Automatic annotation (TrEMBL):
PROSITE patterns from the UniProt entry: PROKAR_LIPOPROTEIN
Keyword Membrane in record: yes
Protein name as catalogued: Tetratricopeptide repeat protein
Gene3D superfamilies: Tetratricopeptide repeat domain
Transmembrane regions listed in the UniProt entry: 183-203
Family matches, as SUPFAM superfamilies: TPR-like
Entry keyword set: Membrane, Transmembrane, Transmembrane helix
Organism: Bacteroides oleiciplenus YIT 12058
Amino acid sequence: MRNLRILLYVFVLSLAACHPEGTNVKQGLDKAAQLIEQDPDTASIILETIGMNQMNEAQLAEYNLLCTQFNEDKNIPHSSDNQIRQAVSYYEQYGNELQKSRAYYYLACVESDLNQEKDAEVHFKEAIKLAAQAEEYEQMTKICKRCSLYYQKYENFDEALEMERKAYASQLMLIDSKDNSTVILSSALGLLGVMSLLFGLLWKKHLTVHSQLDTFKEEMQMKEVESDKLVMQCNYLEEKYQFLQQHIYENSPVVSKVRQLKERTGLSSKISFFSEKDWIELLRLQESVYGLVSKLRGISPKLTEEDLRVCAFLREGVQPACFADLMKLTVETLTRRISRIKTEKLMLANSKESLEDIIKSL
């Protein structure tokens, strides 16, 4: 059945070749553009039947853009940027915001495959900006999701997370724009209903009220479904955010350095230099992933920076004997300090748990 449909498209385009020059080109491009999202294989066959020697500059730009889109949607690695750059050059001069956005988007996809990292990032952001200006939220969502994959490819997880947030925000804007249309339609129908009541018979009023109640119930049900979808999307993004944060934490060099201390013994050599920058980064990571600093300060504002550093090491399960030298203290002095943090500053003297267990439970 699908092969018959393809043959029918090719046959129609063949008949169009009998029309004045350029007509079959326009028909072929229009049909390929119409099918490229739902049936890319058929669109590709149609593009192959179009004579490139009959195309003007605008048609050639659209043709090159569609060919690049086909390769991208079919996950075919891009090996050259010649086609898409011709389209970009044309749309930069003559295209509207949406056309420019699409051109820059597919150029960025090609550059990503060709490992042109910086250029791809610039063109992804330009495509997003133009899609936002055109209020094409569906296009903007598509670009942000693809850009997130690009950042993940280069292990830039902070930027990848930001793109996921922008994609989610674009989806909300798309939903809002559709809701606005529904509100306008509902308002028009409501006004028509009022007019009908004014000029109708009195006995119809009862039926109209019931009809409005049914409509209201249906709208409420639709809103509940939309709300459930949004909750699921939020939960998904929250899980993804937590995963990315945990991934960044687990792969941090400073956390790896701290965990090496667990393997030390009293006779082992001292750990390599632990700089002030390492201390700051360790506390920042533990705050972003576990909220450790804010939780401890919420319990006791009296905690000093040195106290927080001790708690940070205990959170990773490092024993006092293994990091006393980093604190420039003896093991006995550090042990007493840990006791004072628990009893005097956190006011947990009656707790049977160790300070390490208390911190891990926060």
